[in-house]
Design goal:
17 helices, two-stranded antiparallel sheet, transmembrane helix, two-stranded antiparallel ribbon, 342 residues, UBA, 4 strands, mainly alpha
Length: 342
């Protein structure tokens, strides 16, 4: 359903799996025990006037609405790719930092609404919503946009469209959800390390090691195998998708072989080489003989090893990383997009 994150399931994402299981389980439990739902309401008036500061934690943890829980779970499942890319500790630091920043931003935005519109915001939607909305910032900036199809010949459907639709559905579920959304997007500045926020809000190493020893064995997903339902030939749809992926790989290999046979044009002296800033324009224009041979996509240069290491840190195997870099002419963005869809 989400083409952005591939088909590796919950492998190497113990934190995302734990959030899905624990938070969804608490929502179901509170639905069956409605007398305890009052303890988890996100009531700003009770926080400010009655000093019930604990509501800042309880009210921003568990969703009391099943529809919000479903949309949040879909988004967490989709955004699990960032746990593979960043690592569990850095991903946990991102969630922790944005959770704290959004708590302050919620209060400031509520005061701004009261000052501008003379309307007091008493209660906000509950759940781990602000950190989820903050994940749209790295999703928009770092995940490549790949067109899938077009509707009526004008509207392009990409691999990211469904994620935005789920986010829009979550946005329209509560009258003040826009405030939570804005708070999450503002706290998403943590991704760019604005004001050195990543040095202030982070998960300590000792806590990460404790979680790795205690929690990771409970929530670590099994490694996908060829015998699993995600393997070869499980269903007709999967076989059709595999054939399409094979055609895409062949196209990439053909483009790479053509690029190897064509020498690179050399920039003229004293002229700014725009191809250095726009990689997609590198193979355009007249072909000129080049004294330098085209580097092999799988050489042992430090740049190639760095690209392989970056892909391995995202959770892909070294063999898959080498194959993707070879097929994409050492283009890290194309290789990442290729691996995310397989």
């Amino acid at each position: 359903m989400f083409t952005t994150t591939g088909s590796r399931g919950l492998y190497k994402v113990p934190l995302s799996k734990g959030l899905l299981l624990v938070l969804s389980g608490l929502t179901v439990m509170l639905t069956l025990l409605p007398q305890y739902q009052g303890l988890f309401t996100y009531n700003l008036q009770a926080i400010t006037t009655q000093q019930q500061v604990w509501r800042w934690a309880c009210g921003r943890l568990v969703c009391l609405d099943l529809k919000d829980t479903l949309c949040s779970s879909l988004l967490i499942y989709n955004f699990r790719i960032f746990e593979r890319r960043f690592g569990t500790r850095k991903f946990a630091s991102f969630l922790w930092g944005t959770w704290l920043l959004s708590a302050l931003t919620d209060f400031l935005l509520a005061q701004a609404v009261y000052f501008l519109f003379d309307h007091e915001v008493e209660e906000l939607p509950t759940g781990l919503l602000s950190p989820i909305f903050s994940l749209f910032v790295p999703f928009y900036l770092s995940i490549p946009r790949v067109p899938v199809t077009q509707v009526l010949g004008y509207f392009s459907i990409t691999n990211k469209t469904l994620v935005y639709i789920v986010g829009l559905q979550l946005l329209t579920s509560h009258p003040f959800m826009w405030l939570i959304t804005l708070s999450g997007l503002v706290s998403g500045l943590y991704y760019g390390n604005v004001l050195w926020l990543q040095r202030v809000f982070f998960v300590p190493v000792w806590l990460a090691k404790m979680g790795r020893c205690v929690l990771e064995p409970l929530f670590s997903g099994p490694e996908p195998t060829s015998e699993s339902p995600l393997g070869m030939g499980a269903t007709l749809d999967i076989q059709r998708q595999q054939r399409m992926d094979l055609l895409d790989q062949q196209l990439l290999l053909a483009e790479y072989n053509q690029a190897r046979r064509s020498p690179r044009p050399q920039p003229q002296a004293g002229v700014l080489d725009w191809r250095r800033f726009f990689p997609s324009l590198r193979r355009r224009g007249p072909i000129r003989p080049s004294p330098q041979p085209h580097p092999s996509p799988l050489d042992d240069s430090p740049a190639a090893e760095e690209q392989v290491a970056r892909l391995v840190e995202m959770g892909f195997s070294r063999i898959d990383a080498l194959e993707a870099l070879g097929a994409s002419n050492n283009d890290i963005n194309m290789a990442t997009n290729y691996l995310l869809q397989h």
